[in-house]
Amino acid sequence: MNQSVDLPRVALITGITGQDGSYLAELLISKGYIVHGIVRRSSSFNTARIEHLYADRRTHTESRMKLHYGDLTDSTNLVKLIYEIQPNEVYNLGAQSHVKISFDLAEYTAEVDAVGTLRLLDAIRTCNMEKKIKFYQASTSEMYGKVQQIPQTEQTPFYPRSPYGCAKLYAYWITVNYREAYGMFAVNGILFNHESPRRGENFVTRKITRGVAKIHLGQQEFITLGNLDSKRDWGHARDYVEAMWLMLQQENAEDYVIATNEVHSVREFCEIAFREVGREIEWQGSGEQEVGLEKASGIVRIKIDAKFYRPTEVDYLQGSAEKAYKNFGWKPKVSFMDLVKEMLESDIELMRKNPNA
Ligand code: NDP
Ligand code: GDR
């Protein structure tokens, strides 16, 4: 009997403590994988999103999840981890992922998001595992940047508009290059925005749902935002991590767009979230002077602050995941309205329990 058939598959996730890393770890554990994750050293706990996985019996009794200190800026550490873990699949989700912050931390963003990807690919080669490991790179719709074509597909030309987008474009191409140069099974998932109750608090959707939850509970009066007119294709993170896994299960290593093909503006997101708690918003003024008033009371609920604008903005993102649907039947399960509802309900519950959250 072939012993290897019974061996559980082993995955290594960089960025396991992030939104996507936590959902992906859950998915892989449910599929019987042993999941290893790289955690950055931090002065306070940064594992809140995967805490519940510790409570899972399988992570204790069957050692289904193992965490390691590491960092995408530390090559020696990456080589050591690849060598020790000998993973079948590597998911590179670790990144400085905030677009606005990348203008302030441009060099660091390139160091982690661009060169970090190279370090990880090279660590795999250093361990002579380039033919044994399947590699997933967390590429992004931010690479499309300035609108060239609607909807955006795998063929649309790139035009990044931020240090983050530029760094991710390097990571995209180095992944393609290692696939072509060394025959690695290395793929880019070009994922459009995806959100969830676990989304970082300083991304716009979560900022809005947290703010609306606090306003609803009388804990806060208004939310301060930047550009209300940018449009995004927002899906649910849980659906999107499934696509990551599916890409690595295909016979051929290919790049895929993952998106919903449905677009909403930040302004619409605000209106819908307020409507969910029974409040209508009307807009007054323009530019930085614009405000969102609550219709019934005339109280200002949304203010604009120039500090949340970006030096160069990505105005419009809409992706077509036709290829993923055709090749492996992927399509989003959670609708936009259900996503907003789930995030809002979760934040209302969170703020009710802990008004200081
Ligand atoms: P998060 O910001 O929630 O998570 C990022 C993860 O990367 C965290 O675990 C973070 O650790 C880790 N990280 C940051 N810096 C380093 C470093 N120097 N070394 C190792 N790890 C590091 O992002 P998401 O989960 O939303 O996104 C996952 C990936 O997908 C990212 O690469 C992102 O750029 C990309 N992406 C995201 C999309 C989205 O809409 N969410 C769309 C397209 C691509 P810590 O917890 O300690 O901060
Ligand atoms: P994005 O997400 O830049 O698309 O990157 P974000 O939620 O930060 O911004 C979306 C749009 O909302 C506008 N906006 C604001 N954004 C933030 N963060 N805060 C505000 O107060 C605010 N007001 C308006 C922005 O200008 C922008 O147009 C996300 C990240 O997850 C990336 O890592 C990922 O690659 C892309 O999605 C796809």
From TrEMBL:
<comment type="pathway">
    <text>Nucleotide-sugar biosynthesis; GDP-L-fucose biosynthesis via de novo pathway; GDP-L-fucose from GDP-alpha-D-mannose: step 1/2.</text>
</comment>
<dbReference type="GO" id="GO:0008446">
    <property type="term" value="F:GDP-mannose 4,6-dehydratase activity"/>
</dbReference>
<protein>
    <recommendedName>
        <fullName>GDP-mannose 4,6-dehydratase</fullName>
        <ecNumber>4.2.1.47</ecNumber>
    </recommendedName>
</protein>
<comment type="similarity">
    <text>Belongs to the NAD(P)-dependent epimerase/dehydratase family. GDP-mannose 4,6-dehydratase subfamily.</text>
</comment>
<dbReference type="InterPro" id="IPR036291">
    <property type="entry name" value="NAD(P)-bd_dom_sf"/>
</dbReference>
<dbReference type="GO" id="GO:0042351">
    <property type="term" value="P:'de novo' GDP-L-fucose biosynthetic process"/>
</dbReference>
<dbReference type="InterPro" id="IPR006368">
    <property type="entry name" value="GDP_Man_deHydtase"/>
</dbReference>
<feature type="domain" description="NAD(P)-binding">
    <location>
        <begin position="12"/>
        <end position="343"/>
    </location>
</feature>
<dbReference type="InterPro" id="IPR016040">
    <property type="entry name" value="NAD(P)-bd_dom"/>
</dbReference>
<dbReference type="Pfam" id="PF16363">
    <property type="entry name" value="GDP_Man_Dehyd"/>
</dbReference>
<keyword id="KW-0456">Lyase</keyword>
